[in-house]
Q: What sequence folds into this?
């Protein structure tokens, strides 16, 4: 069984605020006709540039190789071009192709992927969701309204969720970590208060930031949130400085989570050694795929840390997260995004039921990828999957997070 053909779907989901502006799904076919799907979580280059990178990585390291040789293919890709170090773009391309290999291997053996990487540890996985506007909410005002956030949280709890994530803390700016405006701290506290009052002790609060702050700014914000006991304080400082994040972790009585923007076990090991976080959030379509994700989870276990696979992408990466999470004793949560398009793209084969996801039983990833639907939504968007603003934090007029990647 050899890898023979590659096709790449670049999909524009109808709602770019729930999963990103585009999803990149590579399809691999073996010489004996078995098909596998993966997903690349890429935001550092545009989709057409990424398409070329994926094709190059496939031709150099996957084509003609057995999909069983995951470790060999990883080492060849990781060391490509005399690098042998983490590379977001190359490892993002590799990760999507690697996930597709596992889909093929499961189908070849008529077993779910989780059965091939350690077996079923968890019968069902606790899911969480981001807070999104309800039908009657104003789509712009929602992101700065604590009351609307409280209503959305109550709706999530009614659907069985026991954890919700939100991000009211101000802009993502290319100017590196900044000191939050006092109005950002005030709004963040108001969000926590409104959501905690709406859900009581029936749900955990997951406070999202995305590397916005200096250590001092993150500490000020985090200490202001402590009375509401969030389950985590996500990526409070930029991801390239583990010592800075460790400073926050020591000063704030909220567990620090990070990992969306990291790749390979090398970077996650540095986080653990630095004491920067006790919750790791690998995005499998960037971190190196399912096997590398398993290594990251095992590393975390030795440090007493937990994993919560990240999802700001499509449902193929979500399926990979579910299979990994099924095998991990130190699983905390899995992120999920519920839209009709997410569901329909994989044939509704994996779903959230009363706040949990059951381990899939179908072969491979256990999905029925809808190629017709993917082809009907080609990407014609010019922006990156996620973008940071050029402007600095506005200390006079306040800041408004717009939510996700709206066009």
A:
């Amino acid at each position: 069984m050899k890898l023979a053909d590659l096709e790449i779907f670049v999909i524009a989901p109808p709602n770019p605020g729930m999963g990103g502006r585009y999803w990149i799904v590579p399809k691999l076919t073996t010489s004996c006709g078995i098909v596998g799907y993966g997903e690349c979580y890429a935001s550092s280059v545009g989709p057409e540039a990424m398409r070329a990178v994926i094709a190059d990585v496939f031709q150099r390291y996957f084509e003609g190789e057995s999909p069983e040789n995951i470790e060999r293919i990883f080492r060849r890709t990781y060391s490509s071009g005399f690098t042998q170090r983490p590379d977001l773009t190359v490892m993002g391309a590799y990760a999507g192709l690697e996930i597709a290999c596992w889909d093929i291997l499961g189908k070849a053996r008529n077993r779910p992927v989780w059965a091939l990487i350690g077996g079923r540890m968890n019968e069902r996985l606790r899911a969480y969701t981001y807070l999104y506007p309800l039908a009657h909410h104003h789509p712009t005002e929602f992101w700065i309204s604590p009351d609307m956030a409280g209503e959305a949280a109550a709706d999530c709890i009614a659907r069985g969720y026991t954890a919700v994530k939100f991000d009211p803390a101000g802009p993502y700016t290319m100017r590196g970590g900044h000191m939050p405006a006092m109005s950002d701290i005030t709004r963040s506290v108001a969000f926590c208060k409104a959501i905690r009052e709406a859900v009581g002790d029936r749900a955990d609060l997951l406070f999202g930031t995305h590397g916005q702050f200096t250590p001092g700014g993150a500490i000020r914000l985090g200490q202001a949130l402590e009375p509401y006991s969030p389950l985590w304080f996500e990526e409070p400082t930029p991801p390239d400085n583990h010592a800075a994040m460790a400073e926050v972790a020591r000063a704030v009585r909220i567990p620090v989570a990070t990992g969306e923007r990291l790749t390979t076990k090398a970077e996650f090991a540095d986080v653990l050694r630095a004491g920067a976080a006790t919750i790791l959030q690998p995005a499998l379509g960037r971190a190196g795929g399912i096997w590398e994700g398993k290594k990251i989870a095992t590393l975390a276990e030795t440090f007493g840390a937990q994993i919560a696979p990240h999802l700001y992408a499509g449902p193929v990466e979500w399926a990979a997260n579910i299979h990994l999470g099924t095998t991990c004793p130190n699983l905390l949560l899995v992120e999920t995004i519920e839209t009709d398009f997410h569901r329909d793209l994989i044939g509704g084969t994996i779903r959230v039921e009363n706040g949990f996801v059951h381990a899939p039983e179908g072969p491979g990833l256990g999905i029925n990828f809808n190629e017709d639907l993917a082809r009907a939504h080609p990407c014609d968007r010019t922006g990156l999957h996620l973008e940071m603003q050029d402007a600095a934090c506005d200390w006079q007029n306040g800041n408004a997070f717009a939510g996700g990647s709206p066009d």
